[in-house]
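User: quick one, sequence for these tokens?
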């Protein structure tokens, strides 16, 4: 008997408001485990159809059957936020999850990165994604499955390549630039030019066609949708739909450690202070909490990556203990994972959490390989730069219409996989309909040029 977890939600909400949490309305819904897996794979309850999601679905199922992954809940920030809870959860699981969701909802309503992206259009992303899916189904009926899939191949291969600094709604570049008249070569000629202005008119500024792009452009989805020479309007719509959804996903990605840690802190605190919860439910929920925030996935395992719940929860507890809740809420409002770890992960905290790199030989001792806190922070953050993707920009459009891309290998500190890169270039070429060139480096950091012609 799982019990009625919903009856505790209003009580948890009242308690959370009394403790200072502030959130947009949350709609809670229990759904089958199979639907939870689909949500985790697609990223949204309803999303555009594409074969890559099927591959991810199989991977997620394998992870679950092997015991590596269990989904208790998935939250979609917005106004309202939507929280989907697995129907297989027990009463204690769902009481903890409801409290956890309130922490997420407080975070997404008040964090500046979330607020900025939601203000640009992602506040109702579920409805928008459903509209995109229906639109693409109509395109499939009109233009055929294969034609639409090729455009989705290209757009989804570039879904991480957006530019948050430019905003969701952008105007095209100015078509012309104004070139000021040449300045006088020296003081004498400058004075001479002013003696009798009526004799000869002063030189005027000239307009010339602006280079395209005028500077390296990182928002590949926007640039191709705006400037691809022979792209159909429906193809541009698909590119812009993928871009819309990427703007929604970015703050979730860029604040994962903060966000999961904040939600974990608040579910733990709400459970401690929720005296209306039966004792047996509380004890089971505490056990679930300890599983969520443990450093590794299971006993006798060494984690391949740091558990963001554990890292974030531990840091928030330390911040609140040392600086107080007001300071913690200010950090929550202003930071993302980059500033959060760089400002608040100290040597002492890293040592306490055993985060420094180590080497373990069979039957031998554990040896710390590095105890440099700056190196540790950057290692934890390395997969978060640029949405976890290599930094690629549009460099130029050549006279023959070829698109030239540039990989910022110095920023990434790595080369690219040539086979995978060529595959993406082939996708892009199908919608650009001209040659596509990518300047990068190989594994030895030697200059390398890849092309789809």
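Assistant:
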């Amino acid at each position: 008997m799982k019990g009625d977890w919903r009856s505790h939600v209003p009580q948890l909400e009242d308690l959370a408001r009394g403790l200072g949490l502030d959130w947009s309305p949350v709609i809670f819904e229990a759904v089958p485990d199979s639907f939870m897996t689909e949500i985790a794979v697609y990223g949204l309850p309803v999303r555009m159809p594409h074969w890559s999601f099927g591959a991810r679905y199989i991977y997620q199922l394998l992870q679950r059957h092997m015991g590596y992954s269990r989904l208790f809940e998935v939250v979609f920030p917005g106004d309202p936020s939507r929280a989907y809870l697995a129907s297989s959860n027990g009463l204690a699981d769902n009481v903890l999850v409801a409290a956890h969701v309130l922490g997420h909802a407080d975070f997404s309503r008040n964090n500046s990165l979330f607020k900025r992206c939601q203000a640009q259009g992602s506040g109702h992303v579920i409805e928008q994604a459903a509209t995109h899916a229906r639109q693409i189904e109509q395109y499939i009926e009109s233009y055929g499955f294969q034609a639409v899939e090729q455009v989705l191949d290209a757009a989804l291969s570039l879904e991480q390549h957006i530019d948050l600094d430019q905003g969701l709604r952008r105007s095209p570049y100015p078509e012309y630039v104004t070139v000021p008249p040449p300045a006088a070569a020296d003081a004498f000629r400058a004075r001479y030019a002013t003696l009798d202005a009526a004799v000869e008119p002063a030189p005027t500024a000239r307009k010339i066609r602006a280079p395209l792009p005028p500077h390296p452009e990182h928002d590949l989805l926007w640039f191709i949708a705006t400037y691809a020479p022979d792209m159909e309007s429906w193809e541009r719509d698909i590119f812009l739909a993928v871009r819309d959804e990427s703007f929604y996903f970015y703050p979730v990605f860029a604040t994962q450690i903060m966000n999961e840690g904040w939600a974990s802190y608040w579910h733990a605190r709400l459970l401690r202070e929720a005296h209306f919860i039966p004792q047996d439910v509380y004890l089971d929920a505490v056990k679930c909490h300890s599983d969520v925030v443990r450093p590794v996935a299971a006993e006798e395992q060494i984690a391949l990556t740091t558990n963001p719940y554990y890292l974030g929860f531990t840091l928030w507890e330390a911040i609140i203990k040392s600086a107080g809740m007001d300071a913690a809420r200010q950090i929550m409002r202003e930071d993302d994972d980059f500033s959060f770890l760089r400002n608040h992960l100290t040597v002492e905290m890293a040592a306490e959490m055993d985060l420094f790199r180590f080497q373990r030989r069979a039957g031998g001792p554990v040896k710390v390989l590095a105890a440099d806190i700056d190196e540790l922070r950057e290692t934890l953050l390395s997969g978060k730069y640029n949405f976890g993707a290599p930094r690629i920009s549009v460099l130029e459009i050549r006279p023959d219409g070829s698109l030239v891309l540039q990989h910022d290998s110095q920023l990434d500190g790595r080369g690219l996989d040539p086979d995978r890169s060529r595959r993406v270039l082939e996708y892009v070429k199908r919608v650009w309909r001209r040659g596509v060139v990518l300047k990068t480096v190989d594994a030895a950091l030697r200059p390398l040029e890849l092309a789809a012609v």
